[in-house]
Amino acid sequence: MAPLADMFQYDFMVRAVVGGLLVSLLCSVLSLFVLLKRLAFAGVGISHAALGGISLGLVTGVNPLLTALLVCVATAFGIGAVSRTGRLTEDVAIGILTTGLMAFGVVLVGFAGTYQGDLFSYLFGNILAVSTGQLVSLAGVAVLVLGFIGFFYKELLFVSFDEEVARVTGVPARLLGYGLLVAIACTVVAAIHVVGLVLASALLVIPAAVGFQMADNWRGILGISILSGWLAVFIGLTSSYLWDLASGGSIVLALVMLFFAAFMVRRVRDARPA
Amino acid sequence: MTETLQPVLQMEHVDLTLGGRQVLEDISISLMPGRFLGLIGPNGAGKTSCLKVILGVHRPTRGSVRVLGSKPWELGHRAHHIGYVPQRALAGRYAPFSVYDVVMMGRVCCIGLGRRPGAKDRRLVEESLERMGLSGEANRPIGSLSGGQVQRAMIARAMCRKTRLLVLDEPTEGVDLPHQDRLYKLLKELQVERGLTVITVSHDVSMLSGYADELACINRTLHVHGDPREVMESHHLGNAYSCEFDFFSHHPHGGGGHHHDHQGEH
């Protein structure tokens, strides 16, 4: 246990753990709604679209996370608006917008070759370099997103289960749908710190997927989702510290392993005679 | 009491075009409070679209709709007076909600934003579950119920508030025959007990005609609307279904014997 105790002697590791747990909490709570509303592909799309925003920030000198936030929010609204027309399904809208914005990002990066080192940390995350200021920003995003979900949780659950009935009985389903997409956009930008934009969607999908394997009710799924997210952050950061592995990749790999463990437990449980 | 004199539903010359195709043409239906209307018609006739106009999901391209005295999309918080049971509410869907959770969703519009369900909400949900005979199933996952139980849970969700208009889209689809009869009986009891107005879409003409006070037959246009027996005997019904209609009505309280509808050769 001594190496683990040593780990917390370093301020940067303490900040990394705090930031990781914060982002993981945010993503794990949101992931329940991402799975209920079948927005996993939207999470992937929005996170990849962030490349356009990051590149724009790097080239123009504006904070890349701010431009990424703007692009992600715009993408979220775009996905909502295009899919509401009824002529295109949401997955097609995501496919078009996401690839378009990624292509935009790639073209911009070609113009600004000197920034490719910075770009790498946005692509794959660098949680060990999280500053106190960034932690405060992360906490702000967490308060906003968790506040939104806490305030509207029963409406969000209703809309996730039965959008048309919710709308007919006076629940502002369309507004909440946009709200959820914007919350995903904000969370993706927050998760860029931890795992980078390439892997951010994993944090938005896998925690609740673990929960869905282990529990039959949304409360249980939410609890397991949060615990599995935290466990993955802890395992990922510890292995990153002990064996000098990439922190973002280690966190996502830990989550994937937790998912397969839960999947196997579920299979065994379902195979047992009642 | 003047309120009871106003129709719950008033559709006048309603046209609806969806995706460039005219789905409804010149539909005019008026329904007084406490009545049970059965909307019938062949597959693809526009019955569900008509319901969705009534619910404010679709806006008519021509004509006017009034539900509880207002345009359905302008009901605001009064929308909670409408209960809606959609077609195959749980078809192909895994949902991590208990029966109790699902029925509590019916209270969401009454609880208010940012508030948690209180003692009154819990009591009303429990009463609604009991009325639907689902008290013992409250903690079961909604996906583990039979088709008939799911529909009763959806009705419980629609009725756990001051519902004045209950709208159901093919409530008996996926429900076995004895439970179909039980479902309609339950709807009839609710109508009488609570002075509820009921509108239900069904293609099971014979069974519905035994419970509805009025039948309206739609096949893009309104072919006939009135007393079930008169509608069943009307030649308009055959026109709507494009077939001969040889019908024996189903009488829920005896006297009707077997229910059976026989469509002649197309």
Describe the model.
The complex is a heterodimer of chains A (274) and B (266). Chain A is an all-alpha fold and 274 residues long. Helices cover 85% and strands 0% of the residues of chain A. Chain A has helices spanning 2-7, 11-36, 40-60, 64-84, 90-111, 116-124, 132-161, 163-168, 173-214, 218-243, 247-271. In chain A, helix 4 (64-84) packs across helix 9. The radius of gyration of chain A is 19 Å and the shape is globular. The model of chain A has no long low-confidence stretch (mean pLDDT 89). With 266 residues, chain B is of the alpha/beta class. Chain B has 9 helices and 11 strands. Chain B has helices at residues 47-54, 99-105, 108-111, 119-131, 147-159, 177-194, 205-209, 228-233, 235-241, and strands at 9-18, 21-31, 36-40, 62-67, 82-85, 165-169, 197-201, 214-219, 221-226, 245-248, 260-263. In chain B, helix 6 links the parallel strand 6 (165-169) and strand 7. The N and C termini of chain B lie far apart (49 Å). The interface between A and B is medium-sized, with 25 and 33 residues.
Q: Rg of chain B from C-alpha positions?
A: 18 Å
Poorly predicted spans of chain B: 253-266
Look at the structure and name the CATH superfamily of chain B.
P-loop containing nucleotide triphosphate hydrolases
The top level CATH class name of chain B:
Alpha Beta
| Helix coverage percent of chain A | over 70%
Q: Please tell me what the overall shape of chain A is.
A: globular
Order of strands, main sheet of chain B, comes to 5-6-7-3-8-9
At the fold tier of CATH, the topology name of one domain in chain A is ABC transporter involved in vitamin B12 uptake, BtuC
Summed over residues and divided by their number, the pLDDT of chain B gives a mean of: 85
Label the overall shape of chain B.
Answer: globular
**Biggest beta sheet summary of chain A:** none
Number of strands of chain B: 11
